[in-house]
Design goal:
The protein is 9% helix and 47% strand. By secondary structure, the protein is mostly beta strands. The strands form 2 sheets. It has an 18-stranded parallel sheet that branches. It has a 10-stranded parallel sheet with strand order 4-7-10-13-15-17-20-22-24-26.
């Protein structure tokens, strides 16, 4: 087997352009250091040099390798467009780390003054990007962000953020299409995955979320942006949600845009406070000019084969702004109950047009067919 791994490693290094951050000055020892700030800045320079080489190489495919070490990083932006049609960022993949059984760990700087641009790790305008491996991304309260990254694949990663810190998403995806997130674990203080405006064909499969605020579409329709926000063709499958303070699958909107063709199937909840949520009254900091109405249309949403428990009693919460703003909302084969024996689970809905079949607790009394 050892010989096969050597051959495979040699194949990747010889056949594909291969850039390792260690060859550009990264240290990655992960030990406490007096000059921690200097180490973070040094790693940024090394990562950017390796990225620039990867992005500009005159080949169809290229690999950026982050070996099984611990790297402290200040904010960094990996920008495109790039020459290769496909870029693979390997994070702690076994065959590329001198046969070590360890895994990578990328840790954000704790110097908050460095985050004036509101990002830590940001990939932007990169087509055909894949992040894969067994490594851990420790955001220290910062999200892993992707903006305009079509044909994006995220696989096998672990992302953690402090569960007590607000607005600490795990992964943010915006203005991207044909995205796949697979076989990953995310624990954070806000959304595990947030899907924002102008996203379509997003497939999320076999993700474990918790603690956190679930896998969210939105928030959308922020009146301050002036945009008509759209999200479509989002499919969440075979995902598990854990944690007493966790929201599960959620659509949250302000007042402008469209959400359509959304599927949640084969979902398991374990002691999640609010498992299923549509919230068209989302209005943080009381910033909405008009409360109680919504011009954002939500349609063709399917929830099917969903089971589990809630730490509360309101296990299904569907709140739509007007009688015509939520259409063809379908609930099928759903079985949810409270983990607290003193509470009886119930469904709440407002202005919802759709149907329910084999759903416990039943929302029939508040849905319009």
């Amino acid at each position: 087997m050892h010989g096969n791994i050597i051959q495979l490693q040699q194949y990747y290094k010889c056949k594909l352009p291969y850039f390792d951050v260690m060859n550009y000055g990264a240290v990655g020892d992960g030990k406490p250091m007096i000059h921690r700030y200097h180490l973070c800045a040094m790693h940024v320079q090394a990562f950017l040099k390796a990225w620039n080489e990867t992005c500009k190489v005159q080949q169809q495919r290229a690999t950026l390798n982050i070996p099984a070490k611990t790297f402290l990083l200040n904010p960094i932006q990996f920008s495109g467009p790039c020459v290769p049609a496909s870029i693979n960022v390997q994070i702690g993949l076994f065959i590329f780390i001198d046969f070590s059984t360890g895994s990578s760990k990328i840790i954000a700087s704790t110097n908050k003054s460095l985050f004036s641009n509101n990002h830590w790790l940001l990939f932007s305008y990169v087509k055909g990007l894949t992040l894969t491996g067994s490594g851990t991304i420790d955001g220290q309260g910062q999200a892993l962000k992707f903006y305009t990254c079509p044909n994006l694949v995220l696989q096998g990663l672990t992302h953690i953020n402090p569960k007590t810190a607000p607005n600490t998403d795990g992964i943010d995806i915006a203005s991207s299409n044909h995205v796949q997130v697979r076989n990953s674990k995310i624990g954070t203080g806000d959304d595990c995955i947030a899907i924002s405006a102008r996203c379509s064909f997003i497939n999320i499969t076999s993700v474990t979320c918790g603690p956190g605020h679930g896998i969210s579409i939105g928030s959308l329709g922020d009146p301050g942006s002036g945009d008509f926000d759209t999200v479509s063709e989002v499919h969440v499958r075979s995902c598990n949600f854990t944690g007493r303070n966790t929201t599960g699958v959620r659509i949250k909107t302000w007042q402008g845009g469209e959400v359509k063709k959304i599927t949640y199937e084969d979902i398991m909840f374990d002691n999640v406070r609010y498992p299923i949520v549509i919230d068209q009254f989302y209005c943080p900091n009381n910033a909405c000019k008009t409360i109680g109405t919504s011009a954002l249309a939500i349609s063709d949403v399917l929830y099917t084969r969903i089971t589990g428990t809630s730490s509360g009693d309101e296990v299904i919460s569907l709140n739509c702004g007007t009688r015509n703003s939520c259409n063809n909302i379908v609930l099928d084969d759903i079985h949810l109950k409270s983990s607290d024996p003193t509470k009886t689970a119930y469904a709440h809905c407002l202005n919802v047009n759709g149907r329910a079949s084999n759903v416990e607790p039943s929302p029939d009394q508040c849905m319009h067919s």
